Amino acid sequence: MPSKKSSSGLTVDPFRGVRFPYGRGTLSSAMCPPYDVIGPDLARALRANRLSAVHLELPRGDSSVKYANARRALVRWRADGTLLQDDAPCFYLVEQVFRFEGRVYRRTGMLAALGLEDATARRVLKHEKTLPKHKADRIRLLRKVKANTSPIFGIFSDPGRRVRSVLDRVKRRSPEATGKDTAGVSYRVWRIQDPEKTRAITAAIRSKKLLIADGHHRYEVAREYWMKTRERGADRILAYLVAEEDPGLVVNPTHRVLENAAEVRAAARRLCRLQGQRSLGALERAIGRARSPYAFGLVDGGLDLAVPASKASGVSTRFATEWLARRLFPGVDAHDIVYCHGSREAAREARKRRGVAVLVKGFSVAEIRKAVERGGLLPQKSTYFYPKIATGIAFRVFR
User: Fold this and answer.
1) d(CA 328, CA 308)
2) Burial level of 22, CB count in 10 A (0-12/13-18/19+)?
3) Tens of pLDDT, residues 98-108
4) Domain 255-381 adopts which CATH fold?
5) What is the pLDDT of residues 34-72, one digit of tens each?
6) Hey, how many other C-beta atoms are within 10 angstroms of the C-beta on 374?
7) Burial of 393 (0-12, 13-18, 19+ CB in 10 A)
8) CA–CA separation, 293 vs 382, rounded Å?
9) Among residues 47, 48, 124, which one has the least CA distance to residue 57?
10) Where are the domains of the chain?
11) Is pLDDT of 7 > 80?
């Protein structure tokens, strides 16, 4: 059950992680992406490794057996020593080094146990609506496995470097584990067990609000499960936390591809001023320069910047993805949209489907916060924080 200290503020605690033994290079074989970005081909490749986290995160089999398969793997691995549990509660400092658009970034965060009680929930800011089918899958896994297999991704403000200064001191030591994930992102991991350091982190983050960057489905499922069952150990969720000020925090829009190209273009002509562009790169630059927060790109054989006219009313969040959902293609089921993380990927997908790519204008973390505070949840798949945090660094088991 939650401790007395969780009666107010944001509860972020160290935990006794269940993990593969650490060592140089060991993370490479253990890690897998989170479930929602593992396609069939990658799943087959990962499952060929019998000691991959994929066997817990996205287990083999149909819905009648796959969750039981994950449970059996967890029990077996803990019994035979494949997985061990830390003796003392830890924060797990995670550094990722990656390349994005020709630049090298270094992102530093930590794995922690985030409280699910009401006081903490009031300080957790969700920014996207969820899809029922993903929630149904994750609740079935949670019920069977009794563990958080992959972390949600949360962002907090740390302008005074109270948390980051502690993490910087820890990074002076040699890392305890290293490796690369399937996307080529390099990882280094340190455990933070020293009570003085863990208390400093907990105290510094207590007054903060947390923006969920990724993992809305897992957060909602975990909170609903805890509120319904009050099961021992289910009162926390595994979370990867990063300071908003971290120079390696990269957030991108999620572009949309729809098959009803003629209808979308007709709506764009009715609502917007269209300006033809000579190349995809030129279109990307034009979207970035446009002053309207709702400006977008159309790629359907043609290349056009679309800037909503004054007659096209705005939306309460003043955020592009909500305007697109409400004004450009209202009534389209979110499940019928293909979501892409890059403009070139979206253009290729539009050609393949003989549809239209709608390229979304970029934004900052601060703009996401403001949008949610102004108008509530944004449409599904509004943002994409790159890179994802891998599964398999440490699991959080209920008991």
Assistant:
1) 10
2) buried
3) 998 789 999 99
4) 3.30.1760
5) 998 999 999 999 999 999 999 999 999 998 899 999 999
6) 12
7) buried
8) 14
9) 47
10) 4-251+386-397, 255-381
11) no
